[in-house]
Design brief:
Blueprint: E1 9-15, H1 22-27, E2 36-42, H2 49-54, E3 60-63, H3 69-79, E4 84-87, E5 93-94, H4 98-109, E6 113-122, E7 128-129, H5 140-145, E8 156-159, H6 160-165, H7 176-186, E9 191-203, H8 214-237, H9 243-261, H10 265-278, H11 288-297, H12 299-314
Parallel strand pairs: 1-2, 1-4, 2-3, 6-9
Antiparallel strand pairs: 4-8, 5-9, 6-7, 6-8
Helix pairs in contact: 7-8, 8-9, 9-10, 10-12, 11-12
Length: 317
């Protein structure tokens, strides 16, 4: 292939019944100085998405039977020809110039991963939440393991070899984005940062995470725990499970442990014991009455008291 015909950046947009927002996501990926290809994978939409895509130009459109987002992303990656790849959910959008700024930075620094912050946009109210600026990350994996602001894949540009090495995992479908970033972190990529907002994570009523209720919510929590077990096990086997990474993981596992405890106390107690094994000096980050109860009554007894409080307030659910 002649050099002038090579693609610099492939933008992969998976979509399912998002015709109401897909055009904005696509438009935010156009008009770049670098050579960009936009790949839209329709995961079996029934709202006219595929018919609309057929009438568009400058897009590589792919359709598959409904299988879920991880399969759609992997399908798009198999068609991508760019040196770098970025992922964009069809209900989010990029800021003008993001693709060019990050690609230029990648070329200048020979980076395998370029990161910028992502802000939140509330579709109902129009409110924008500006997240912390990214100025320096000493350890990308530590940031992703913890619960401090770690941006979002929307704000990241990945070298093709990272995407080839880390496909999306359908067995962690409800938290596959978390698994992806942690597995990328395991590869210790050469990273660069472009300050400023790369794009907007749009909050709306139809959002996938907003509909994680009941059993799906419980499955999501367990997938989260199992992801950490896999990642920390890999780090331990390669002698890369540092104390800083252990502590970061514990801060992220704690809130998930309390959510699991609402339905499966014994299982949650086991996760809590795992936290203490990772960090024997772990301090439960609860203040006030909750903090007092945890300190004097322990995890399981405190959770039983909290369960009684929820029953009194909300009834049996």
């Amino acid at each position: 292939m002649l050099e002038e015909n090579k693609i610099d950046v492939s933008v992969i947009i998976p979509t399912f019944n998002r015709l109401w927002c897909l055009p904005k996501a696509i438009d935010s990926s156009r008009n770049t100085q670098c050579k960009t290809e936009i790949i839209v994978v329709d995961d079996g939409s029934t709202d006219g998405t595929w018919e609309w895509l057929q009438a568009q130009t400058g897009i590589i459109s792919i359709r598959q039977e409904n299988q879920g987002q991880p399969y759609a992303i992997n399908k798009g990656a198999s068609f991508a020809t760019g040196k770098y790849i970025r992922f964009l959910d069809s209900d989010d959008f990029l800021c003008e110039g993001t693709i060019d700024k990050q690609y230029t930075k990648a070329i200048e620094t020979n980076a395998e991963l370029v990161c910028s912050r992502v802000d939140s946009y509330n579709m109902e109210t129009g409110e924008i939440t500006i997240n912390p600026e990214i100025s320096h990350w000493e350890d990308f994996l530590e940031i992703q393991l913890g619960n401090q602001y770690g941006s979002h894949f929307l704000g990241m540009l990945f070298h093709r070899k990272l995407v080839d090495a880390v496909p999306r995992r359908p067995d962690f479908a409800l938290r596959e984005d978390r698994m992806f970033l942690l597995e990328v972190g395991l590869l210790s990529p050469n990273m660069a940062i472009v300050e400023g907002c790369a794009g907007y994570w749009v909050q709306h009523a139809q959002q996938m995470q907003a509909n994680y209720q009941g059993l799906k919510s419980q499955v999501t929590n367990w997938q989260y725990v199992n992801i950490y077990k896999k990642i920390l096990s890999k780090l331990e086997k390669t002698n890369q499970l540092t104390e800083i990474r252990k502590n970061a993981a514990c801060t992220a596992l704690w809130p998930v442990t309390t959510w699991i405890a609402q339905h499966h106390l014994k299982d949650a107690a086991q996760v809590y014991q795992w936290i203490l094994k990772l960090n024997p000096s772990f301090q439960i980050p609860e203040k006030g009455l909750k903090g007092f109860l945890y300190s004097f009554l322990g995890f399981s007894f405190t959770q039983k008291i909290l369960a009684i409080g929820r029953f009194v307030k909300y009834g049996w659910k």
